[in-house]
Amino acid sequence: MRKKVLWTLGSIAGGLLLAACAPNATQDTLQPVGDVAKQQKALFVPVFWVAVAVFVIVQGGILYIAIRYRHRKGRDRMPKQTHGNTRLEIGWTIAPAVVLAVVTVPTVALIWDLARPAGEGALNITVEGYQWWWGFSYPDDDMVTDWDSPITIADTMVVPTGRQISLALESKGGGAQDANQDPDFQVIHSFWVPQLFGKQDVVPGRTNHIVFSVDEPGTYTGQCAEFCGLQHGRMKLEVRALEPADWEAWVENQKTLAPSPTDPLAQQGEELFLNPLSDGRGACIQCHAVGDQGATAAPNLSHFADPEHTCFAGCNWRTEDREALAAWLADPDAVKLGAKMPDYQLTDEEIDALVAYLYSLT
Amino acid sequence: MATVTVPETARGLLRRPTATTGAWSWLTTVDHKKIGIMYGVAAFVFFIVGGLEALLIRTQLYRPDGTLLNADQYNQVFTMHGITMIFLFVMPMSSALFNYLIPLMIGARDVAFPRLNAYSFWVFALGGLFLYSSPFLGGAPNGGWFGYAPNSTTDPSIGMTFYALGLIITGIASTAGAVNLAVTVVNMRAPGMSLFRMPPFVWMGLVVQFLLVFSLPIITVALFQLLFDRRWDTAFFDPTRGGDPILWQHLFWLFGHPEVYILILPAFGIFSEVLPVFSRKPLFGYQFVVFSGIAIGFIGFGVWAHHMFAAGLGPVANTAFGISTAIIAVPTGIKIFNWMGTMYGGDIRFTSAMLFSVGGVAMFVIGGLSGVTHAIVPSDYQQTDTYYIVAHFHYVLFGGAIFGFFSAFFYWWPKVFGRRLNEALGKIEFWLMLVGFNLAFGPMHILGLQGMIRREYSYPESLGLTFWNQVSTVGAFLIALSVLMFMVNVARTHLKHRDEAVEDPWDARTIEWMTTSPPPVHNFDEIPTVHSLDEFWHRKYVEDERSGTLVPAQAGAADTHDDGHAGHGSIHLPSPSYWPLVAAVGLPIMAYGVLYSWWLVGLGALVVLTGIFGWALEPSVAEE
Amino acid sequence: MADLAITPGHGAAEPHDEHATTTGLPNTKIAMWVFLASECLLFGALITTYVLYRGASDTGPYPADVFDIPYTSVSSFVLLASSLTMVLSLTAAQKRDVARMRLWLLATALLGLTFVGGQVYEFTAFYDEGLSITTNLFGTTFYVLTGFHGVHVTVGILMLLSLVGFSAADRLPDDAAFPVEMVGLYWHFVDIVWIIIFTVVYLIPTPSPVPA
């Protein structure tokens, strides 16, 4: 009987461990790729095993005691009324304290290591948290566009591999409005890409930093990790890490304006986008920017259709998902309750034209 | 139960209530036992409500992109779940146990201020109702139980204003109760009961009251600041006018961390009572257990920023709080060893009460260990705001505090009601709850480490989080089944005919078992004189000189007749009163006034003042 | 148990009761001290907020623009004097000199009212100079901190006047010194809090920002 119990427990434990290594968990902190995430896991794992050891000893002890000293029918005994054992108690106070002290040393070391500012030659990115999307702007001198502004993109953060990256986290708001005319408020967010680094909060009024690097090219998903209002659960992002050659090409493309659309439908869309809509409905460029025109309250769409810009609207839909884009334009609030983009009452023709235009912005 | 009869005084509307039995008497009672029962019933009702909110959450999260609740509804549900479980269930249920048991355990006839006790209950009950009126008046609180600014100050829905007002009201209830119980323990103990002869449950209770007294004012200030920002456009947390959102976090967690010890120490007290009784051995290392409780109380005020490791306080602060958090793990953890030492070498009977206490200790170990991993600061940058944290606090709060409550229910039910809950049902309930609980919250460790954030109303299929979410939901429904089972147990116990009298069903150790079950209104015919810890046990068993073992004492040795503290046959008891209820009612009226009309604020204040003056002018015991 | 007559009598909480308390002190006294301890944390949090936001206002008026230190010194002195009259009323109560006790209680209440009135006047002047509770962080933290204190003083005045009223209606217990002492503890606490506020808020200068 006991063997059966042990086998069952063992297979459950094994199953759990296996399931813990899920292959498609792109936000798995236990499969780190970035240097910071690797350091954080390297600290966590040994402590985890220490905790497992304590768990086994303590729970095993409780089980053993519960079984060994259970009352047996018909055998009434008055146990020895032990009140304590001072030396034992002092011992089991000191032992955990020593274990904790030992664990504290690498902990404090890593706190300070992670707090060090980036070195020379790091790439600076300003991460901007809005309700409910992420914007990224590249303030370095060698990242300035032809129209004299920093390269700016939303929902996808593009970074080079093999180089230190310094993120400055800022909370933004106040430029947009939702269907009830409530503005996007400046609130606390938290920037988290689990496979690259642990999160840091994005706090209005101060600038927190994350310094990291990543060697493997690829796509890494992340989310806002501090409750920030209605659509906190849909405030996501992707990081595209590019090898140096791809990175150079991307930067060069971002510095120039997207090519003027040649397709007549896209040209129509450009007309609609850059000018006030009929019947006083407002204008896209009141909030959005394309190239040297527009404002910063909403995602920068300069290179919306660039392959590295993989998602939109809080990174909840794939850029190439035409239907999703059309649905978003038709009624943002219907697909993302409370979205801070008004319903412009666009006709189907207008939507087709705008979609064509957006897809021309490579 | 004896009826206190009091001759009537004035006639008319303002006649002093006299009845101590009957439905109406519950509104005017000042008897700590009745108040304790009311706290217990109200808290349990809120437990069910909070549990239903949990089931809604788990159903929504059962599959990716769930559609049961939209974003707005989900945010209200998870916020109310947290507020309900913490402020309307665990804290009042602890008050229920403290209220009922502490006077009996220290040999007092009631608490220090019986009318203040009633007031605390009514303010809590009305505060809970006030909070739950919010969904009908524009929206429930939706900014999380922690209400981080500026989201909580700017959210357009009225919910967070209800949050601020509602928690100010319940805070008043808890503060009044804390002062009351602190004075009771300090000042009303039976002759001979020095501090280190008090049962550990009473000790933990005392620490809890001081934690409340010192932490509640801080959150009260924060809540007023939040209220003023929302209602009157002040700048406390407005970054555009220089306000710092981090200030909210500091104030909140300066309360919030002691709060978690307020939530768990009662369970530590319960384990420390139940384990010795059912092991037939004293608590191993009583002094260490007491001192570690006091240490937790003090150090608990020095760890608050470990909830803010990712907020950007800087490496100095993070280092300091990482160290202090590691330090507090020591007094918290060594209690486990004391409890194991209590059971070791004992003659253990696994009644339902014992199962819940042992299970509670075991679950708390898991929660405590995950808590230690949070203290690894850089690793916490990955863990914080994920389901890994949700797992941790449910293991300590559900696995620790709530299992503790169920242990207390099974242990003290005969004391309070004179009937035993059904043991067979209780054992099934325990195993069902244990399995359901671990299925519900165990996988959350994995979900958190695999990148599932907190407070999101849905997740996509692509993140690979589906399987463990489904397991968790199944576990939640098993918990619900076990709670239902408990309610069936209670119903059956009370619907059946009460046959056997249960004076000391567990062969217990402490003096609350020295009076009848249920106790008479005056608690003890004669207050016992206390000569040692576990006074009752030492009256029942004496050390046999020859063998050195414990043997039963002579018959009648446990009686209190020779204690000589009967007060010459006349016992003074406080009389029922309306005024606590009146004074309590004014508070939610004022709160609605803040929301809707200054006239209501004035009216509410008038009601409060009337209640207080009526109370002040009324003697605590009616004149003959 | 049947032969025990359970009769109403004096509540266990009253100080002259023959039931001894564990510490020898009356319950109400310990309760008042515990309550005042919690009030320390309340004012501590409010004062801390003020101090943390000192100098953080992005627009005026600033403290130096509106404070009239001599004026506030006078009203502070008035409040301090009320603590003296409070002690005098307690001494009279202990000597069972009911008339003097009521006199000094009234004097305390009057001085307290003067203080509160002085604050109302002061705040009106500040408001006229452009400082409201929403103008800037200084306005917010100043009015809320002093407002909470003012409410506490007002409650204290109510308690003092109630004592006089109850005494006149012969509703105070024989040992009137005890409730007077309890109210006195509260009153002195409120006074000490004011000394701290006056020092931290008024006397310690907050430099105004230099115009850009």
Keywords:
heterotrimer, A: 362 residues, alpha+beta, 5-stranded mixed β-sheet, 14 strands, elongated, C: mainly alpha, Four Helix Bundle (Hemerythrin (Met), subunit A), 0% strand
Brief sketch in words of this structure:
The complex is a heterotrimer of chains A (362), B (624) and C (212). Helices cover 63% and strands 1% of the residues of chain B.
How many runs of DSSP E, i.e. beta strands of chain C?
Answer: 0
Distance between the termini of chain B: 22 Å
User: Biggest β-sheet of chain C, characterized?
Assistant: none
Radius of gyration of chain B: 25 Å
CATH fold-level topology of chain C: Four Helix Bundle (Hemerythrin (Met), subunit A)
CATH architecture of chain C: Up-down Bundle
User: How far apart are the first and last residues' alpha carbons of chain C, in Å?
Assistant: 85 Å
Content of β-strand of chain B: under 5%
Summing up helix and strand content along with how strands pair, one would put the structural category of chain B as mainly alpha
Q: What is the overall silhouette of chain C?
A: elongated
Main CATH class of chain C:
Mainly Alpha
**Unreliable segments of 5+ consecutive residues of chain C:** 1-18
Q: How many individual domains of chain C?
A: 1
Mean pLDDT of chain C: 90
